[in-house]
Amino acid sequence: MTVLPSQPSHDIEPGLISRALEVAGRLANDAADVITATAGRGARPAASESPFDWVTDTGRTLERHTRRVLGDEFPGVPVFGEEFDSDPEWSTSVADQLTARSGSARYRWSVDPVDGTANYVAGMPWCAYSLAMLDEHGPVVGVVADPYRSQIYAAARGRGMRANGTPVRLADQQETRAGIVCTELTRGGTWPGMDRFISNATKAQVGVRLLGSPALAIAQVALGHATAAVLDSYEEWDVAGALALAVESGAAVLDRRGEPATLPMGGLLVAGPAVAGDVLEWWQQAAR
Q1: Where on this chain does Mg(2+) bind (predicted)?
Q2: CB neighbours (10 Å) of residue 93?
Q3: Domains and their CATH numbers in the chain
Q4: Which residues of the chain have pLDDT under 50?
Q5: Has 146 been labeled as part of a binding site?
Q6: Which partner for 215 in 5, 18, 32, 128 could form a disulfide, CB atoms 3.0-4.6 Å apart?
Q7: pLDDT tens for residues 130-154?
Q8: What's the rounded Cα separation, in Å, for the pair 35 and 63?
């Protein structure tokens, strides 16, 4: 079963896209330098904190910097982020958040300053900085910094995906066998049916990896390294930047029902169009 990739055609001002890409790329480069310079310092979560949902000083510093730069460059555009959305200094009002996410606001930014916090703290080389500009139709611009591979992945609606400036287009893949599928734990641990999903994949001779960064999991599909990524639970800022990459690379982005979507909330599948149907079947079977 071949699933056609999502192809949003909503026009955006070219000048705005170019400026958003430039600013987002600059912020991603800044973040990559900070992450590689500070990772693995040996900090540990307090007894009341979950290692799956942990706030670090680096995360707060990077998000504060991101918000200040975006506030100067794009005044009036709301910013949503993992670390400060409940902080009175930075968070928008509940009414403003609902307005922005319901489509009444033209644009919004969404940032995850350190995606893969537990890996970052342990010094494991698998975490990312993710930033996206969105409108009511989904990501307009997305940037993901992969610090340990010295890569900045960037995409804009209708302009394709690039890795350090080099265009990336997903090659045709006709079978899942011998491929890798990425998934992630939820904040509470495993997701319902996760064991059955892994069993379904392994029976099809497909490896499953839980690497600890939703943004990089999706990016691996966009780059052609992984066959698919299945995420059961996440926040917008976890995935928005990477979904821009996936759409522009030519991947299919599906919701839990198998419907194409540029920003599905409540479960998503990213895969090459020719293999998306197989992975979707494993996922849906696991949920029964």
Answers
A1: 82, 112, 115, 238
A2: 10
A3: 14-168 (3.30.540.10), 180-287 (3.40.190.80)
A4: 86-88, 90-103
A5: no
A6: 128
A7: 999 999 999 999 999 999 999 999 9
A8: 12
